[in-house]
Amino acid sequence: MDKTMRFDLVSLSLFVAVAEEQNLTHAARRKHTAVSAVSKRIAELEQQVGTPLMLRMPRGITLTPAGHSLLYHARQVFRNLEKMEEELSDYAAGIRGHIRIYTISAALMNNLPRVVSDYLAHYPQTDIEIEEHTGISVVQGLLSGEADVGFFSSWTSAAGIVSWPWQHDLLSVLVWPTHPLAGRSELKFEDIIDEKLIGAHRNSAVSHILERQARACGKTLSVGLRVSSFISMAELVAQQLGIAIVPVNEVASSTLHSGVRLIPLAEPWAQRELLVGVKDYAQASPSVKSLIGSLIPCEPAEE
What we know:
Helices cover about 40% and strands about 20% of the residues. It has 3 domains: about 10-90, Arc Repressor Mutant, subunit A (Orthogonal Bundle); about 100-165 and about 275-295, Periplasmic binding protein-like II (D-Maltodextrin-Binding Protein, domain 2), CATH 3.40.190.10; about 170-270, 3-Layer(aba) Sandwich (D-Maltodextrin-Binding Protein, domain 2), CATH 3.40.190.10. The radius of gyration is 27 Å and the shape is elongated. The two termini are about 30 Å apart. It is built from 11 helices and 11 strands. Pfam families: HTH_1, LysR_substrate. InterPro entries: HTH-type_LysR_regulators (IPR050950), LysR_HTH_N (IPR000847), LysR_subst-bd (IPR005119), WH-like_DNA-bd_sf (IPR036388), WH_DNA-bd_sf (IPR036390). Keywords: DNA-binding, Transcription, Transcription regulation. Belongs to the LysR transcriptional regulatory family.
């Protein structure tokens, strides 16, 4: 015997309105429906689920535990319907896909533009939006659903995110040509820990890891200037206002000031992976899955 409950979308919509308004009359006015019709629909829902969903109070209604559960799932249903409608309208408009990307600057400065260009060459009717964020904001954007795909580093905590290695990155030291360290092929953290630094903003992953390593050495970093742009950091180094520690992928060699040297930081903790991630690969759109597949060697199998 089939005991599957089949819910009517109109009834669910009226139920959500009543739950949000906490008042039958206000919900009926919002949905342009008679109060008696709303009450009848709610009674039919309660009969269908076999338990009260609302308690009628003198000044309105309050949800029962079953009502709270139904409200949560009903909202999920309508969010999925909106997402379906948006995606199908994109197909109708000839876009055939919409991808929202949040990324750290390391990806945006180098290979991500080429990746997007190559992808659009194959899927020209896909609409792609790209926003630059800190690693933490990228992960938060994925978790909240504001972003479909995120690019962040392995230094960023990403609980709840499915991610795959994309590129390797390494911290390096920027010095001007006549700096005493300019002739070195690589540097250790102890070589630069007492130098005057030009730092990234305090919430950046680079700032956090450098401060953590300095504390481990019993030192405090001497940061004279902080700027959000790694290219600006390179220009300030060229003016001999301090040295800077930057991820290799943050600064393209073609953008460096003439004569500024980029020297690898030879520390295990200075190495990181650039990752590409999504919140739920199984629920991702076909456009997102095709983009992921173009980035990593093997597209992950769906569970």
